[in-house]
TrEMBL record:
One of its GO terms (biological process) is purine nucleotide biosynthetic process. NADP(+) binds at residues 163-165, 188, 229. It catalyses: (6R)-5,10-methenyltetrahydrofolate + H2O = (6R)-10-formyltetrahydrofolate + H(+); (6R)-5,10-methylene-5,6,7,8-tetrahydrofolate + NADP(+) = (6R)-5,10-methenyltetrahydrofolate + NADPH. GO terms for molecular function: methenyltetrahydrofolate cyclohydrolase activity; methylenetetrahydrofolate dehydrogenase (NADP+) activity. This is Bifunctional protein FolD. Pathway: One-carbon metabolism; tetrahydrofolate interconversion. CDD domains: NAD_bind_m-THF_DH_Cyclohyd. Residues 137-277 form the Tetrahydrofolate dehydrogenase/cyclohydrolase NAD(P)-binding domain. It comes from Helicobacter magdeburgensis.
């Protein structure tokens, strides 16, 4: 069994980005990321802090706009409009979830698609679905890059995705399809998830349920990508996979922490760098 070590790969990506960002600085451009955080959900606060710290490590300018949970949709939309027009801001990221009185789709659609470093705008979602260049959500793109780094070719493989969120499962399905995999999408209404996972060459799971994927659900020698993050009562951080038992029968598996998580952050930085490059070709 080989661990898919996202911690080491993401550190290498960051190292390369430092040089790329320095080269861009010679052309007078410092990539800028604006992060909008509404409310004080502890997990969201922690993610936003991690993103800001990562920007700092590679020389990307970042600013976090902290909004009270009572902010109206119109107020939030006007902040986005200002950021859309700000030439020093290349990427705009609205941390999800948003409070229920705000329509998430309306907010995401207000972001200039050329600044949509999360890849959540329907413009980018659509381009990804037809395999055109686009911003791709950081977590699934990080998964693809992690697999590629370990020379895992998904073409022709049977891939099962467990969990069909707009943030992870759906874009991952599109990426896998574009890369030539046969993709099964399983979700909350799937009657028998194990009927799918048992036969899969690659299982990717991002549901947020500790211990969901057990050893008897996985084929001998399969590849398992754990995208879940769960905090146990003991304080321990675990994924959605019963790592201890599943790891005994797989060929490759991501650890949690140290697998997909750091890849997400590194990929967001890459997306922000990509957005900054639009300054050279003029942003719409
Ligand atoms: N909430 C959970 N994951 C993400 C993410 O990748 N981006 C944003 N904006 N919010 C999230």
């Amino acid at each position: 069994m080989t661990l898919l070590d996202g911690k080491t790969l993401s550190a290498n990506i960051e190292k390369n980005l430092i040089t790329q960002v320095q080269d861009l600085a010679k052309q007078g451009i410092t990539p800028g990321l604006a992060v909008i955080l509404v409310g004080n959900d502890p997990a969201s606060c922690a993610y936003v802090q991690m993103k800001a710290k990562a920007c700092k490590r590679v020389g990307i300018y970042s600013v976090t706009h902290e909004m009270p949970p009572s902010i109206t949709e119109d107020e939030l939309l006007s902040v986005i409009e200002i950021l859309n027009k700000n030439p020093n801001i290349d990427g705009i990221l609205v941390q999800l979830p948003l409070p229920s009185h705000i329509k998430t789709s309306k907010v995401l659609e207000a972001i200039n698609p050329q600044k949509d470093v999360d890849g959540f705008h329907p413009f980018n979602v659509g381009r990804l679905s037809v395999n055109l260049d686009s911003f791709v959500p950081a977590t699934p793109l990080g998964v693809m890059n992690l697999l590629k780094h370990y020379n895992i070719d998904v073409s022709g493989k049977d891939v099962v995705i467990v969990g069909m969120s707009n943030i992870v499962g759906k874009p991952l399905a599109a990426l896998m399809l574009n890369a030539g995999a046969s993709v099964s999408c399983t979700h909350i209404l799937t009657r028998d998830v194990s009927a799918y996972t048992k036969n899969a060459d690659i299982v990717c799971v991002g549901v947020g349920k500790a211990g969901l994927i057990k050893a008897d659900m996985i084929k001998e020698g399969a590849i398992v990508v754990d995208i879940g993050i769960n905090r146990l009562e003991s304080g321990a951080l675990v994924g959605d996979v019963d790592f201890e038992n599943v790891s005994k029968k797989v060929s490759f598996i991501t650890p949690v922490p140290g697998g997909v998580g750091p890849m997400t952050i590194a990929t967001l930085l890459q997306n922000t760098y990509k957005a900054a490059l639009y300054r050279l070709t003029q942003r719409a």
